Amino acid sequence: MLETRTVDPAEGLPTGIAYALWTLEETRRRTIAYVTWTDEETGEVDEISAEALDWQPTEQRHSVATLLYHIAVFEMDWLYTDILGVPEDEERMLPGMDEELLAHFPYPILLPDHSYTPVSGEPLSAHLDRLAASRRVFLDVVGGMTLEDFRTRRPTEGGAPVTPEWVVEHLSQHEAEHRGQIWEARVAAEAALGGE
């Protein structure tokens, strides 16, 4: 079956929000395809192994697991601190979340030196659940906005004001850039680990 290459925004949302969220969702679909994809001819799923997920590449700074956590935690950071205006806490964790969502984010957003929090030892399913949970919450909040609210500037801690519209575009770009790193880390890991 051939892939359909069309834009299909969600119905019932203002046009500007619907198209922006479609782009965000398409970005996530492609990211997930880099760690678990299905061969269109055979239907066989080619999922990244646990070893490759945690493997630390010498050519770049982050494992696939670390990058997947970073994508999800930054989505929640932008939502809670920049769109909803909840101040960060001293441990650089995510305040304002309910316990069920917070359970997906046991590690700091960044380390004290502002490097990514290294993540390992979690199965791929935990990473996929985290990405799904963060996206559900993000879509619920942003999808419930009016177009005016979506384009209203919000103050940030020590930075330029942002609009939710800009945050959606930024998160799409951010994830797409890390997706390239994920692919390179996976390919390098599987080569180093003997084609797992």
Give a short synopsis of this structure.
The protein is mainly alpha-helical. The protein contains seven helices and four strands, in the order αββαααααββα.
Description:
The chain is mostly helical and 196 residues long. The chain has a domain at 69-196. The chain contains seven helices and four strands, in the order αββαααααββα. The protein has helices at residues 15-35, 50-54, 64-83, 99-102, 124-143, 147-150, 164-192, and strands spanning 36-38, 45-47, 154-156, 159-162. Strands 1-2 form a two-stranded antiparallel sheet. A two-stranded antiparallel ribbon has the order 3-4. The chain is globular. The model has no long low-confidence stretch (mean pLDDT 89).
List the helices and strands and how they pair.
Elements: H1 15-35, E1 36-38, E2 45-47, H2 50-54, H3 64-83, H4 99-102, H5 124-143, H6 147-150, E3 154-156, E4 159-162, H7 164-192
Antiparallel strand pairs: 1-2, 3-4
Helix pairs in contact: 1-5, 1-7, 3-5, 3-7
